Structure formats: C-alpha cells, structure tokens
Q: What sequence folds into this?
C-alpha cells in the first residue's frame, strides 16, 4: 500500500488577496456584507506567548481581539480573514 501523497504544488495551495480584490469579487454578487473579520490578527505573531497565558489574561486578550478584529484599519495585519456575506 502506498502512502497518500498530495499532488498540489505550492502555487495551488496558497493565494493571497488584497481587500480591494475581495471587495471587487463581492461586488459582482447579489450579497450584503455582514462582517469582514481578521481571524488571527496579532495571535500569529505572539502565538507562543499567548499559549502560555493564564485563563484570566487570555480572556482579556480575547476581549481585545474581538474589539479590533473587524476594524478596517486593522484587518490587514491578520494572516487569515473571514468574509461573511448574506444573499439578498
């Protein structure tokens, strides 16, 4: 039995989009945007530190995260975003 192997090349696995490109795609659809969220924000930069936080400090960090994760001037720092749209 041969092990499963991926056949994708890196170019097929990762694509980067700017917010302007995402907005242009959404503009072609009959949708309204509910949320555009930076899902990881600073977490990716501080992941080892954040993993070591106690529960109370982590709760404060999450409060901070949820306060900035939809700010248009901040979502660009996130490695991943989530665009939540609703059909009209």
A:
């Amino acid at each position: 039995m041969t092990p499963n192997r991926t056949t994708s090349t890196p170019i097929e696995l990762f694509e980067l989009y700017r917010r302007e490109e995402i907005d242009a795609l959404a503009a072609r659809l009959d949708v309204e945007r509910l949320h555009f969220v930076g899902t990881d924000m600073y977490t990716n930069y501080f992941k080892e530190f954040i993993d070591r936080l106690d529960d109370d400090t982590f709760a404060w960090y999450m409060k901070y995260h949820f306060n900035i994760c939809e700010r248009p001037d901040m979502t660009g720092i996130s490695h991943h975003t989530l665009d939540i749209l609703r059909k009209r």
Remarks:
- Helices lie at 10-13, 19-27, 47-51, 55-68.
- Residues 32-87 form one domain.
- The first helix runs from residue 10 to 13.
- The longest strand covers residues 31-38.
